[in-house]
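Reminder to self: tokens first, then the designed residues, so the page reads top to bottom the way the pipeline ran.
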């Protein structure tokens, strides 16, 4: 989980972290030469992965038409309209006729005839076979003993009906399976605390999937994600995944990540069918997510008075859009996107650069990557979404891979255990593009097996985007 950052490096010395004045060329405290600090890069242009890329002007994006790009909805069937089969694949026997409210009459076999039954393990071939008759000694009423008082009837309490089961609309306890769960998350029958909905989340949308888990050390899950599929105006498929990581030292980080992921996902799924270029749509989605998180800080003045030192809700964001021939990524913070080709003999790649203290130290040439990420300040982020962010700088980049593969969108809860592109590629299952939900589960398990020190969230998108309706096997 991301940590609340320090002030951006443009206002502090990268060496001693003393405040700087605009226009300073050297640090007034330690004399560090500020000219060696590289400027923050702008949004990246379209780049190639193992191939040649045409100029952005050569991309022919079709004009939007009136259609929303989703096509007609699939027909809906009621469960009763679908034929049923048994475990052997044979049709099930027809249901018996409805019985009247009164108790049905039990057929009595003729005297001396053996009791029979019907086999249901071979539908269509009923076979009668004898059933063992009950021993009359076990079922006959005992004869009364002369002079003995009749046996007392059961106590009134034993004849009381059992407690009513919880209503179908109410949550049922996962422990006793009988008690109703109250508003505080505890069973009214056995008192067992119920797992929270966000402790473990899974979602599959067409050919993409995402999994989020609370991890083994945190008391709640402060990550959130949004996945979905849509179509461009020409009918070409497009897949979208957004992953957000709440800033743990801010207030309500779980609300921030949820609001950001929903806003960004809805913006992308609405803009792409209208013909908006995916990279522009990603940029606009990050801005929409930022506004959603900023709105969480609009709270009564009394709340600020009671907790004046609390930070505003904040989170990081990373996302990807996959089409038939283009891969677009966008991010603010230290969550990442990795490219893992289907042919594992070709090199994988990391497609994002962290907004973090460690990344700035490496960029400034003050530390190598191993030294920077070993430092306790490594995960202090320098970019995030929130009302107290110094400056919002969404990063976006476009890529044109020349071969199929899978796109991994994840929080640092995963990449802490597979930091390099090679390590991530080794952790991704070989069939992840065909079975994204299984692949996402495997990656979350990889993080939990490594210690699960943080919330873990990962989304997998196969590239190129397969036609809609193709899901995981």
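Designed residues (473 positions):
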């Amino acid at each position: 989980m991301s940590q609340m950052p320090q002030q951006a490096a443009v206002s502090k010395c990268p060496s001693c972290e003393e405040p700087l004045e605009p226009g300073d060329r050297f640090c007034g405290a330690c004399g560090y030469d500020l000219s060696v600090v590289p400027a923050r890069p702008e949004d990246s242009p379209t780049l190639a992965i193992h191939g040649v890329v045409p100029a952005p002007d050569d991309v022919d994006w079709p004009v939007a038409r009136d259609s929303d790009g989703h096509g007609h909805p699939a027909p809906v069937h009621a469960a009763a309209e679908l034929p049923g089969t048994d475990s052997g694949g044979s049709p099930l026997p027809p249901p018996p006729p409805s019985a009247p409210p009164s108790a049905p009459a039990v057929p009595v076999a003729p005297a001396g005839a053996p009791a029979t039954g019907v086999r249901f393990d071979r539908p269509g071939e009923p076979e009668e076979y004898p059933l063992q008759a009950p021993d009359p000694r076990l079922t006959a009423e005992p004869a009364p003993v002369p002079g003995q008082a009749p046996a007392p009837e059961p106590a009134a309490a034993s004849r009381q009906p059992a407690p009513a089961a919880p209503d179908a609309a109410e949550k049922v306890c996962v422990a006793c399976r009988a008690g109703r769960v109250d508003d505080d998350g505890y069973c009214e029958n056995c008192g067992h605390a119920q797992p929270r909905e966000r402790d473990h989340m899974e979602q599959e949308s067409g050919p993409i999937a995402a999994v989020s888990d609370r991890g083994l050390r945190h008391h709640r899950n402060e990550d959130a994600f949004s996945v979905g599929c849509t179509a461009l105006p020409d009918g070409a498929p497009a897949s979208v995944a957004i992953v957000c990581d709440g800033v743990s030292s801010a207030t309500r980080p779980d609300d921030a990540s949820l609001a950001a992921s929903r806003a960004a996902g809805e913006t992308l799924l609405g803009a792409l069918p209208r013909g908006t270029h995916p990279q522009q749509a990603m940029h606009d989605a990050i801005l929409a997510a930022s506004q959603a998180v900023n709105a969480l800080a609009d709270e009564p003045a009394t709340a600020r008075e009671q907790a004046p030192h609390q930070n505003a809700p904040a989170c990081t964001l990373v996302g990807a859009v996959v089409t038939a021939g283009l891969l677009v990524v966008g991010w603010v913070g230290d969550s990442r996107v990795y490219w893992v080709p289907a042919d594992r003999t070709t090199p994988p790649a990391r497609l994002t650069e962290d907004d973090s203290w460690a990344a700035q130290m490496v960029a400034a040439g003050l530390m190598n990557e191993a030294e920077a990420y070993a430092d306790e300040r490594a995960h202090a982020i320098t970019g995030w979404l929130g009302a107290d962010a110094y400056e919002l700088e969404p990063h976006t980049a476009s890529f044109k891979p020349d071969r199929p593969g899978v796109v991994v969108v994840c929080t640092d809860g995963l990449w802490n255990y597979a930091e390099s592109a090679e390590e991530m590629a080794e952790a991704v299952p070989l069939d992840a593009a065909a079975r994204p939900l299984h692949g996402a589960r495997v990656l979350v398990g990889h993080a939990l097996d490594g210690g699960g020190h943080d919330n873990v969230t990962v989304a997998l998108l196969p590239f190129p985007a397969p036609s809609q309706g193709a899901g995981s096997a």
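The chain is about 20% helix and 20% strand.
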